[in-house]
Amino acid sequence: MLTITQALYDQIVAHAREDHPDEACGVVAGPVDAGRPERFIPMLNAARSPTFYEFDSQDLLKLYREMDDRDEEPVIIYHSHTATEAYPSRTDIGYANEPGAHYVLVSTADTDGLGEFQFRSFRILDGEVTEEEVKVVQAY
User: Fold this and answer.
1) φ, ψ dihedrals at 58, nearest 5°
2) Are 42 and 68 in contact (CB under 8 A)?
3) If 0-12 CB within 10 Å is exposed, 13-18 middle and 19+ buried, where does residue 68 land?
4) Bridge partners, 123 (sequence order)
5) What is the pLDDT tens value at each position of the chain, 140 positions in all?
6) What's the pTM value of the predicted model, to 2 decimals?
7) How far apart, in Å, are the Cα atoms of 84 and each of 28, 39, 92, 106?
8) How distant is the alpha carbon of residue 82 from its chain centre?
9) Is 43 helix (H, G, I), strand (E, B) or coil?
10) Would you state the pLDDT for residue 114?
11) Beta bridge partners of 47
12) What angle do CA 24, 2, 31 make, to 5 degrees?
């Protein structure tokens, strides 16, 4: 299960809406081995695409060095889908290389008739996708 604060949830959704119609992407870092997302880090979609996201390699290197210096790890890796449901594509699954991370997808399209976005979390390990519950809390 992913437990996330309302503030972080709102920041991820706002970023997805701001970057629409392009896919938004970013990371929420937290203390190593705590499994607690704390620091919101929106990233630039280097692909600038409505159907694909890509972290800029220089930005990603800088981010990982910064997280290492702060004893953090990527707890959440998120991106948006602009025209499809919030479910990992084959490309998303292929690029999932953080076995301990929660992969959050936000859809900015109303694909299920339930509203203008979906917020879902998945674990992706060795190509296997498992959806998990998302619990939104006011504080940890």
Assistant:
1) -70, -45
2) no
3) exposed
4) 130
5) 999 999 999 999 999 999 999 999 999 999 999 999 999 999 999 999 999 999 999 999 999 999 999 999 999 999 999 988 899 999 999 999 999 999 999 998 865 665 667 999 999 999 999 999 999 999 99
6) 0.94
7) 23, 27, 13, 10
8) 14
9) strand
10) 57
11) none
12) 85
The number of angstroms, rounded, from the C-alpha of 2 to the middle of its chain's C-alpha atoms is 12
Look at strands 2-5 and 134-137 and give their pairing.
parallel
pLDDT for residue 117: 76
Query: Within a 13 Å sphere around the CA of 134, how many CA atoms are in the beta-carbon half?
Result: 20
The C-alpha atoms of residue 4 and residue 14 are separated, in whole angstroms, by 15
- Give the Cα-Cα-Cα angle 29, 32, 36 (nearest 5 degrees): 55
Contact, 47 vs 54, CB < 8 A? yes
